[in-house]
Amino acid sequence: MKKHLATPLYKAIIALIIVVTYSCKTPEPRKPISRTTSSTTELSIENNKQIYAAEEAAIEKVIAGLDQKFERSTYGFYYSFTQKDSIKGKTPVFGDRVTFEYNVIALNGDTIYSKEELSPITKSMEQEYGIFRGMRDALKLMQAGEEATFYFPSYTGYGYYGDQDRIGTNVPFKSDVKLLGINIEE
Length: 186
Fold this sequence. Notes:
By secondary structure, the chain is of the alpha+beta class. The protein has one domain (39-183): Roll (Chitinase A, domain 3). The chain is built from four helices and eight strands. Strands 1, 2, 3, 4, 5, 6, 7 and 8 form an eight-stranded antiparallel β-sheet that branches. Strand 1 (71-72) and strand 2 (78-83) form a beta hairpin. The chain is elongated and about 100 Å long. It starts with 7 loop residues before the first helix and ends with a strand. The mean pLDDT is 85.
């Protein structure tokens, strides 16, 4: 009468119940291998502050020896107009397409990119690629036909990664910019 407990079908059913019971257990999350501490973040912040302070000091040293008067923008770069329109006109805003020419010159005076290599360029003011952040902000200060000289710290220029070609890590630079035209998008 108890012979049915030993049948292979009965054993298979019991084994299946055991496997299903233990496989329904929820997986436990893996413990993190390493943890980022606030001291690492604070160290990185402090390091960046020192880099930017050194860049600002280098730029200020260069412009102190020039005949032009430079202003520091709220965006973090320095600028001086070499050709300015005396009549207040339209400056580019988000949505406008601008045509401009510019160059990139190292603080020591070496040309990194000439105007002939880079210009003219037409971009929409909101485009993230093709124009670095500082240039978009610089163009907002200009009217069509104006020319200006800008000194960009690396955090407003090409930053930590550079341009993956001629501009290296954390390189401040000078740029002479001429805004050729503003096409208002409607």
